[in-house]
Caspase family p20 domain-containing protein (Cryptotermes secundus), 381 residues
Amino acid sequence: MILSNPCDEESRPRIIATEKVALLIGNDTYTDLSDLNTPSNDVATIASILKDIGFKVIALRNLTLGEMRNAVREFCQLLPQDGYGFFYFVGHGFEIQDKFMLPVDAPGASKYRRCNSLCEKEVIRDVLEVKPRLFFILLDMCLKVPDRNDNPGIHEELPDVFLYTAQRNLIQQYATTSNLGAYERPTEVNGIYVNHLKKHLAKDIPILNMLKMVQKEIANESADAVDKQVPLTSLTVVNDFYLTDPVTGHPETEARFQKLMALPALDTIVFDNIGWKSFVKIQPHRNCFHNSLDIYITNMARWAVVCRMACEKLQLKLNREDDNLIITIHNLQKTKLPIVLSVTLKHPETAKEIGSYTFDLAQPLITQAHLWFNCSRLINA
């Protein structure tokens, strides 16, 4: 659908998408590779901007290969025909013929293979089968070829082939180009590419104009980056697409997305035995990530607290801010069962148990998508 403004003779017709859907993945905590500092921040930054311009955003962090593939599957089910799809990955990656994203469970630098990674062409193939009006894929990762001396096996590997039918609806953006790295600075919140992208991503201008602005800024970067990171754009589009283009809305996408947003409806809790009352707020971690959950509990300053969950694959962290206790549950994508969280209050001096409350969190957020499912996929077309 095309929308034009008859009152403005100079305005160009605007394309209308059925829906705008984004999948953002940030991997920063690796099992056998070095950790990274900024991917979670980069995802949170982009997610906030895309939400403001009308995207339905699924933001995930620290996924295994199987979880990444299943996240792409869920993304393809959310994205309707003639919609706009936005895919962003930030983390470790490499290039050898094709471009590959490394999951957090990838083997070490001398052992990983293409089969341990998610190929860009696999993602493009799966998404283009949906027939989106636009697919914008942004890879914020190194594109260096693995050293033959350090990792000889990857050069001997017979890779899978991912074929897709080209359409005039694809923009591929890379934070760097072949044989170069994508970098972050320990003193900055975002990686170099997102540090510039965030200034322009929400602008009501054609996507290619926006990307050129980012390219120019990075070309004027300081000496430690300007020659080491050179962004690259590849495209098949002929129309002027804007990330700010309007949508008609798609009921099936809306219903499925709301299912992935599901959270328990709690505002107050009362701890057993002592009748201690607290206000509660439950939301995605950093109000962004759909595989992590933050539970804010007020009126907790006077108590020591112990939390327990049955699922060992979930990661639990406790923090305090003034009178608030913040319980964060990571790795929601790994649980197959409803989440039950027990919170016990203890006397800070005697450690005597004073009261308790059990949260029945059901299956919140991305748990509904069953990213743990190990399905066999046909990867050769």
